Amino acid sequence: MNLKERANKLKIDIPAVFIALRKKETPMIAKIFAGITIIYALSPIDLIPDFIPVLGYLDDVIILPGLIALTVRLIPADIFAECRIHAEGLWADYKPKRWYLALPIVAIWLLVIYLIIKTIWFR
Question: pTM for this one?
Answer without folding.
Answer: 0.63
